[in-house]
Structures are given as C-alpha cells and as structure tokens.
Amino acid sequence: MGAGKSSIARLIDYCLGGGIQLSPALQAEFVSATLTVELERSTLTIERQRDGANVFASWTVGDEVQSVIVPARAAAGELIPLTGVETLSDLIFWLSGVQPPRVRKSKLKDDSKTVRLSVRDLLWYCYLDQDNIDSAFFHLEEDAEFYLRLKSRDVIRYVIGYHDERVADLEAELDQLRANRTARASAIESLTRTLDEVGAGSEAQIAEREASLKAALAEAEASIVALRELKRVGQTEHAVDILARRTRRLGAGIARLDVAADELLAARERHVRHRNEIETLGLKFRRSAVAREILGDVGFADCPRCTQSLPARPARCCEVCGQDDRLELTDAAEQAALELDIASRRADLDSAIEEIDRSLTRIRLRRERALDRKASLETARNRASEEADSAFLSTVLLKERERAALEAELQSLAWLLRLPDLLQQQRDALAQIIALELALKEALKDARTSAEADRTSLTRLGDYFLDALVQSGVPGIQRDDRVALEPPTFYPAVFSSDPSDLTASTFTSMSSGGKKTLFKCCFAIAVHRIAALLDAPLPELLIIDSPMKNISERENRAQFEGFYRMVYALKAGELSETQIILIDKEYLPPDPALGLDIRSRHMQPDSTQHEPLIRYYRGK
C-alpha cells in the first residue's frame, strides 16, 4: 500500500489526455511524465507537464524528427496542415492510419450533426481504474450520465462493426450537405431581406420600378421642353415655388402613410388580442373537457358545496344543478374538430399578422424614402432661394438635376435586375441539396440497417463474455447460461439456462464488489477479443487496476487463479498483440509452457529490494 502502483497507470492515462488526482507523493515530486506509444506509422513520444493542458508530441518520419505542441483534450484549430489534427486524439488516429470515427450527436434527431469519437472514449474499455472498477460499468448502466452512455454505446457499435466505413462515409457526406444547406438558406434569407429593404422583392417589382422611372424621366424631359416654350411667352414658374409645392405634396403623402401605419398597427393589435383570446378559450375548453372526463362518471348523492342531500333529478339532467347535461361536449370527434378549428383560426390570425408586418415594413420603407426625398427637396429649395437665378434658369436647373438623378437610378437598376435571378438560382440549388439530402438519409438508413442486420459479431461478443466469466470462476455463472446483449443499450445480462429461472445477473444486480469487478474485467476482455478478431481500431492496450480489489486470493483461490490463467492464455493466443498491464496485490506467475514475455515488478514503500515509484520519498 502506498508504493505507487496505481499512480503508474494514472500517469499513463494522464499522458493520453486524461485528468489526474495527485497523491501526496506526486504533489510533492511530480514534474512531468513521458510516454512512448508504438503506432502504425511511427513511434510517438508524449510528454506532459504537471497541470499542463497541452502535450509535447514528437515522432519520426524517415530520418526526420517532427514535433508539435498539441492540446490534450480541447481542440484549438488544425495544427498540422491537411491532416485535420487538432488534438492529441486526432494525432494518435492520424499516426495510426485510422480515420477518426464520427457518430451522430443526437440519436433522436435524424438531422443531428456528427461528432468524433476520441481516443479518450475508446480508452474507457482499455483502462479500468481502481476507483471505478467496481462502481461503474463503462457508462452503460441506465443511471449513467446520458451523454456518456450514448458515447459508450457508440464505442461498442464501432468495435463490433455496426458503424462501418459505408455508414461513416454517408454520415460525413450528409454533414457536408447540411452545412451547404444551412449556408444556402442563410444566403437566400440575406438576399431576400436586402431586396425587400430596397423595395425590389421580385423581378416584377423591379420592372414596375423601372417603368415608373422611365415615365418620370420622360416627364422630366417633356417639362424641360415645355419650359423652353414658356420662356418665349414669359410664363416660367420659379424653382422655389415648384419645390415648395412638391414638398407640401410629399408631406401630405407622409401623413397618409402614418395614418395607414396607425390603422395597420391597430388591426395587428386586434388580431393579436383575438389570437390570445382563442388560445385562452382553447385552454379553458381543454381543461373543461378533462374535468368533465374525470367527473363525468361521478354520481353525486350530496351537494359538493353544502353537503346536503340532492333532490331527485330527471334523466339526462345534471345531478348537482339540475340543468340539461350537455353530453355532446364529451364526444371525441367533436372535441377533435374543435381543436382543428382553433388551430385553423390561430393559423389564419398568424398569417394575417405576418401580412400586416410585411405591409408595415413596406410602409416604413416608403416613408423613409419619402422623408429622404422631402429633405432633398428642402435642401434644393433652400439652395434655389439663395441663388439669384432667373425663374427660367432655376426651373431648368431643377429639372436637369431631376433627370440626372432618374438616369442614375435607372442605371443602378441594371445590376439590381440580376439579384432576383441570383436568388432563384440559390433557391434551385437549395432544392437540389434538400432532394440529395433526403436520398442520402434513405441510403444511410439502409446502410445502418444492413450493418446491424448481421448479429454475428454481437453474438460472438456475448460468447466471449460468458467464456471469460466461466473461466474466471464467477459464482453462479455456468457454461450453458445465456448472455443477453441487445442494441441499443448493449448492457449485458446473464440468464440461467433454466427457462423457469428469470433472474438476471447484471453489473447493477450483483451485491458483491468482487463479482462486480470480475464482471467488468471480463467484459473488457471480451471487447478486446472481438476487436482482435475483427481487426477493429481499438487501442491494443488493457490496464486493469486491480482485478482482485475485493477478492481474497486465499479465500477465493479459484477466482484468483481462474482469472489470471484466462488472461495468460489469451495473451499467449488471441491477444498476443495487446499489451496487458495488471496491477494487483498478489502475483500469480504464468505457466512457463506459454512462453510469455512477462515483466513483474514488486513494489513496497520504504524498501530497497522492491523499490516504490518514488524511491527517496518518505511521506506522511
């Protein structure tokens, strides 16, 4: 006790991005930890400082040593160009030649975005720490945190092949389509809002505006010609008078717009009030219907208010008030019809309110343009008043300015005419994306169904689990028992071969801490066995601390020896490529005939023969 055995496993996990609770010895002495990991493409060296959020990672490509400082957990953008490496987990996947698995964030929404499974998620099945080995079952139990439970299930799916490459490719493609759809929809919304703000919501509106501008331009040119004719007879009106008349006309138009806006606001307020009344009446109706359904079959013998005996009532009359019993209100069809009518009226009012809002927006834009025009006319009038021009010259200059402004606006409409076409192109592209997205959803659904239709791997996982339990000598588990391991929970339960015995042995139902520990260890071993069989990308590392935590190797010798012999046999066979680290209070050497390359380290505090983790530390 206190020699630092568990601290070694914790430091390994810490180098792989985990957190760590420092023991008093580590609080006093720990500076940094370095871990060497053999991966498919290279050997990775990871160094992490105490309390460090980042790790220093280095590896060799050919004769060149490459290194990078990478976040242990939180992503901070791509660190190695064109690799997608943002975290230590991404780097490990990349150097392993494995595409990081992606799963849906929400299992309830078909359009949920996908997120990566990290190495940390896979390590749940690779590192059974001493604190949680007998208290939590890989976050698969029902009372586990919801998000962690879903991710743990995703790891099982990933390992047994339910999440195959076809599914991953389709999910990635669907993610890209959703991103494109969102971008297109945002562009359409922005472009539509811009067109509405300039009063050109459609090509027809722009054409109408163009026709009105051409008519105004023709009128301005005709006015200039007419002014020249009037000059000859000396009847030219001064520009100040013309501008004053137009200003008054614009002011009257603005006043009319204000009146129209006030009327629309009043109508909107009435519609909103009416809608609220309908919603309130609907709520009261539903409450009344529920109350009548509850109290409809109650036979009142006494008045519920004064408790006096009620007189005899005629048939089909209320026993309490004596009025006709309106039984028709309890009819389900009529109640549904009323609900539909309420929803229809509410939808009509919502539509009317939206139309009023659009009209108010148009009035606001027209009023703003009129105010701008009025301000411009007042400025021009003030300038004309200051200039000592003749009536003819001032009026001609005014008309020339108007013609130039109209010509400039006509020219600006040339590029504005392109916007509705561009808007329609965006809408067509969005429709194509939506259609392709629907097709991909169906293909993804078929791919998932196809991937999950083959239960061979799942059945094999259950067989491996039962085999490990039997070899470990877990009490109450027999070779002919049955393991229930069903999606989507993947929470294992062991049933007796006797059909009349419905008792299920699960991690939660086991009362013994020793049984819980062996149950969990055996499932982890089964997961590694199926991963080795399917060549699944599960880290070939299994750390168990400590399998005999609640078991006495003297009192429960069969379980102690059975578990270790099972692990040694698997290490000599199916799990020969898996590095297994066992931390325990006793050591059972393997059979020499297995030929295992095994290293045993006996650690004792204050010992020079069996040195602890920190040889010189003498703590309290």
What does this protein structure show overall?
The chain has a domain at 237-389: Helix Hairpins. Helix content is 54%, strand content 9%. The strands form 4 sheets. A 4-stranded antiparallel β-sheet has the order 1-2-3-4, with helices on one face. Strands 7-11-12 form a 3-stranded parallel β-sheet, with helices on both faces. It is extended and about 120 Å long. With 620 residues, it is an alpha+beta fold. The chain is built from 14 helices and 12 strands. β3 (54-61) and β4 form a beta hairpin. The longest helix is centred in the middle third of the chain and has 57 residues, at 239-295. It has helices at 5-15, 24-29, 88-95, 119-122, 146-160, 165-197, 203-233, 239-295, 332-386, 391-416, 418-453, 456-471, 513-534, 557-572; strands at residues 32-38, 43-49, 54-61, 64-71, 102-104, 114-116, 127-128, 482-484, 493-495, 504-505, 541-545, 579-583. α6 packs antiparallel against α11 (418-453), α7 runs antiparallel to α10 and α8 (239-295) runs antiparallel to α9 (332-386).
The tally of beta strands, per DSSP, is: 12
> Mean pLDDT, nearest integer?
82
Helical amount among residues, as a percent range?
40-55%
Number of helices: 14
